[in-house]
């Protein structure tokens, strides 16, 4: 009989100079991702959420955990907020590189660095541009290109 062990992540929260810092300990896997996602949804519900996730004491994360981080990042970006991850774990950083997420998240090795840079990026949010479903924004140098995903993927004819 196979025994499956899972450790529900423990978390502690505090607010430092307007930034919510959530320290996660343990594992984020398929079993523990749902409650963590619900908590992060609550923390990112308001306008301009400012969140730091301290992952230095996280012992394991799987694709469900990465999904939770991506969901939090997308919710924060939609609310013109800011998310920082704090970790110096080379295994986790390698996972971000291999999944092409290293450029998506702002990652710091120390909590003090993540908090110190808060004032540097305090710029007003850009004008919000709504993009219809089926379209994506891609970066092309200094210009943004909106492309019809279905056409570019060859799923539909251009006519």
Describe this protein's structure.
With 159 residues, the protein is α/β, with parallel strands linked by helices. Helices cover 31% and strands 31% of the residues. The chain contains five helices and seven strands, in the order ββαβαβαβαββα. The chain has helices at residues 30-43, 63-78, 90-98, 111-116, 149-152; strands spanning 10-16, 19-28, 50-61, 82-86, 106-108, 135-140, 143-148. Strand 6 (135-140) and strand 7 form a beta hairpin. Helix 1 (30-43) runs parallel beside helix 2 (63-78). The longest helix has 16 residues, at 63-78. The N and C termini lie far apart (58 Å). Residues 1-6 and 119-159 have low confidence and may be disordered.
What labels would you give this structure?
5 helices, disordered N terminus, two-stranded antiparallel ribbon, alpha/beta, disordered C terminus, 7 strands, five-stranded mixed β-sheet, globular
List the helices and strands and how they pair.
Layout: E1 10-16, E2 19-28, H1 30-43, E3 50-61, H2 63-78, E4 82-86, H3 90-98, E5 106-108, H4 111-116, E6 135-140, E7 143-148, H5 149-152
Parallel strand pairs: 2-3, 3-4, 4-5
Antiparallel strand pairs: 1-2, 6-7
Helix pairs in contact: 1-2
Backbone shape: globular
Put simply, the count of helices is 5
The CA-CA distance between the termini, in Å, is 58 Å
Q: Name the structural class.
A: alpha/beta
Query: Radius of gyration, Cα only, in angstroms?
Result: 18 Å
* SSE pattern, N- to C-terminal: EEHEHEHEHEEH
In short:
Helix content is 31%, strand content 31%. The protein is an alpha/beta fold.
């Amino acid at each position: 009989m196979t025994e499956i062990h899972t450790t529900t992540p423990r978390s502690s929260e505090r607010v430092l100079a307007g930034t919510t810092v959530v320290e996660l300990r343990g594992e984020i896997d398929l079993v523990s991702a749902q409650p963590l996602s619900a908590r992060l949804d609550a923390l990112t519900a308001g306008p301009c959420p400012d969140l730091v996730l301290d992952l230095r004491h996280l012992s394991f994360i799987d694709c469900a955990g990465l999904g939770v981080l991506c969901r939090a990042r997308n919710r924060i970006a939609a609310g013109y907020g800011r998310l920082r991850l704090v970790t110096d774990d080379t295994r986790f950083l390698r996972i971000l590189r291999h999944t092409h997420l290293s450029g998506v998240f702002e990652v710091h090795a120390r909590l003090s660095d993540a908090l110190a840079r808060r004032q540097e990026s305090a710029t007003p949010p850009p004008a919000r541009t709504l993009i219809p479903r089926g379209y994506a924004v891609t970066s092309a140098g200094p210009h943004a290109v909106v492309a019809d995903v279905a056409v570019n993927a060859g799923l539909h004819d251009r006519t």
